[in-house]
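Reading a protein record of the kind used here takes only a little practice. To see the layout at work, look at the sequence and tokens printed below.
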Amino acid sequence: MPNPASWLQQAGRLYPSSPAVARGRTVVAHYAEQAERVAALAGALRAGGLERGDRVALYMRNTPAYLEALFTAWHAGLVAVPINAKLAADEVAYILRHSGSRWCFVTRERAAMIAGLQSELPELAHVIDTDGGDYQRLLAAAPVDVADGGPDDPAWLFYTSGTTGAPKGAVLTQRNLVAMSAAYFMDVDTIDVGDAILHAAPLSHGSGLYALPHVAAGALHILPETGGFDVDEVCTLLAAHERVAFFAAPTMVKRLTRHVREQELETPGLRTIVYGGGPMYLADLKEALDVFGYRLVEIYGQGETPMTITAKSKTLHARCHNATDEALLTAVGRPHGVVDVRVIDDQGRERPAGEVGEIIVRGDTVMSGYWQQPEATAKTLVGGWLYTGDRGCFDAHGLLYLKDRSKDVIISGGTNIYTREVEDALLIHPGVFEVAVVGQPDAEWGEVVVAFVVATADAGVDAAALDRHCLERIARFKRPKAYYFVDELPKNAYGKIVKNCLREQLPGGR
């Protein structure tokens, strides 16, 4: 099984003059040059004392150097530890300490903060500012060949968002990354030389994972000059480049959709939007399909099986959209071709179509375990299956529907209420921009449904209007018993709504 870094070297030989990396509109490296730079950087790391299996952290905004550092780690036989650039000092220090990272690549604006942490991190030997002279000197090192490792060698420590405690490092092996990349070609999208991927979402997360199949195909990698997601910049880049795909969280898709519609923009350069990482509500999805047509792909995955549990292709979006039952659009797709997916009850028995249970996954994309956390690994990996903690069901067509995280299911009067169903109903209302539904402790019912609502500007919506709206669309017992209007919803560094923070605001909060 190949080391993913070998794909870059092969692209350098096959497509030497093809553009590899652009910063904004400007191409800054072609594939031959990119391959040479990574081989030299790998030589510098090996000459600097790093040995196979050592960890190298990346605490950077999205820049061309990020891609170089990522592929350099694998080229040298090391383990990449991408850290979300939005994390605070204490969170970063925890990941560096827990992973035992020896080197850390940073962008200039983060260098001082990491340098200030070094005294607390005895294993962290070097902090390399990719905008500085030390990085340029590394590029002058003698190149080395791609490390000859095994398929079960760790390649990426994927730290979870830590919404329910300290983050855990999912150990993704070379086998996992290769299988995930194969799944992209099989179930998500085609990629040809001359196609492009726009890295507007963090490279520490989904966008970085999707860099792999695009390198393998010799595609162009576009890095926004802002280093992140800006709707104006994204639209400018979609006009400047051709055949562009990008990965986005549902909130990013919603913002882009509204912007394109309100500004009456054209997006001829857009090829594919792959969305995932959180729920895409039906109302938002229908609006996005109206604006972009069938250029959307949905994926459902976890850090423990990166980007690869189910996929809803462009064709499947079209079929579901044109079906008589629009609820088909709320499915997260069919299982990827490289995994087995089941829905089971609490006794481990497989649930029939339409019956809700826990989603479990088995396949070559599933992590080998959590870094230095054997007890957490044993609870999550059981009998070769990954227990996701997500609850859902299959339909008669084999499409999977997500209902809730196990911890987010509301049990009211002994009846399970799935928050996504209530959120979907509320988001249809034109006065609701964002919403999060949680359970509030109740002496009589155990829990009751409440909703935190971000209203659309100048909507003038109130609780009575939303109550009438819900009663027309969902069962009476599912409707919220209270509505809390807020300016914004708390989100973690990955853009996911942190419902624990909302529960703590409630009377008797937990």
Summary: The mean pLDDT is 93.
